[in-house]
Design goal:
alpha+beta, five-stranded mixed beta sheet, disordered N terminus, Deoxyribonuclease I, Chain A, 5 helices, 18% helix, seven-stranded mixed beta sheet, single chain
Length: 351
């Protein structure tokens, strides 16, 4: 079964994004943030919980809303938001804080074990493409459309033939100042030190490349790939010199069109000059809630931007302002200053 599904706008009031009529450039802040099993009070999803009780879940939402309030993203890709209710509560909190231009968009993904989804909160109205504002792509066993075969060695040494789809992804589109941007939010298989996980994630990346080409580029949008990719970029070393990728996952996503020479996408983290700042995850290995010398800090969350947009990047940083009681990940932030395209300026009414 090919799955292509959507859940629409969480709150009904719509404030469409309209650039200033005389503007030559539009500032755009894009963020991706793994919120670590963000679960709404009273909602039962998946088998994993960061917090079991409603009060703790409410406070988790409060802290994530605080992060959004501080960062003020125009578009934030939310990883591990587990339900429509979780996204709706975040938007409600933002509205209570006075940030009433934010809207939430949720799509039910296909990870039945964890219940984790990829969602969107934005203060820019996304495009409706085929009457859909957010969608996910997934194929069940036996349907090769959004599925990829892979082989992994079993415990006995024999090879196992398996297949994978991407159970956690979301696609959404924006037109901003004449720029048509198609976002693929991903949460790929975890554990870049494990052979099975690496093989599965590699298969998922091949499916993601098909989504980029067949569902984003083919519609005339420039692809932006972002989220928890759970792998390292060999072109952008992070602060942990002891770890390196065992796959071509990031490289293959950046070079999604193998018929053209060179990579089409660039990891914005290359603009972070201080290598010590290049980490997006904190593995609290002894689970004591503290940042110990033995803990692991690596960069596995990424924003991959079209090379054509890199000249418009103003700033990139990782917001290391999130405590472990909120998430074991940190938001990746990129600020763009997009030039308004001439056709878009010409279409603007005179003042």
């Amino acid at each position: 079964m090919v799955r292509f599904c959507v859940v629409g706008l969480v709150l009904s009031v719509t404030l469409p994004f309209v650039p200033a009529q005389a503007a030559e450039f539009i500032p755009l802040r894009i963020v991706t943030f793994n919120t670590e099993i963000l679960t709404a009070p009273g909602v039962r999803v998946g088998t994993l919980n960061k917090y079991r009780f409603n009060y703790a879940r409410e406070q988790h939402h409060e802290r994530v809303a605080n992060v959004i309030e501080v960062l003020q993203p125009d578009i934030i890709n939310l990883v591990e938001a587990t339900s429509r209710e979780a996204v709706e509560l975040l938007v409600t909190l933002l509205h209570e804080k006075g940030h009433t231009n934010y809207r939430g968009y949720h799509v039910e993904c296909n990870d039945s074990f964890t219940g984790m989804d990829v969602a969107l909160i934005s203060r820019i109205e996304p495009d409706e493409v085929d009457d859909v504002t957010i969608r996910t792509y997934y194929s069940a066993e036996g349907d090769p459309t959004w599925r990829q075969a892979f082989t992994v060695e079993g415990e006995s040494g024999s090879l196992r033939n398996l297949s994978a789809s991407i159970s956690r992804n979301a696609v959404y589109f924006f037109t901003i100042g004449g720029h048509k941007l198609g976002f693929l939010g991903l949460h790929l298989k975890s554990n870049p030190q494990d052979d099975y996980s690496n093989a599965r994630r590699t298969a998922e990346a091949k499916v993601a490349r098909r989504i980029i080409r067949g569902e984003i580029v083919s519609r005339g949008y420039q692809p932006i790939v972002l989220g928890d990719l759970n792998d390292y970029d060999p072109d952008v070393p992070d602060r942990d010199y002891g770890r390196s990728t065992q796959t071509d996952v990031i490289a293959s996503l950046k070079n999604y069109d193998s018929e053209n020479p060179g990579a089409e996408l660039v990891n914005v983290a290359e603009r972070i000059t201080r290598i010590a700042d290049r980490y997006t995850s904190h593995w609290d290995w002894n689970e004591n809630g503290a940042d110990d010398p033995q803990d692991v800090h690596t960069m596995i969350d990424h924003i991959l931007l079209p090379a054509e947009l890199m000249p418009f990047v103003e700033r990139v940083f990782i917001a290391h302002c999130v405590s472990l009681d909120t998430s074991d990940h940190f938001p990746v932030v990129v600020d763009l200053l997009l030039p308004v395209q001439e056709a878009c300026r010409q279409d603007q009414p005179e003042q």
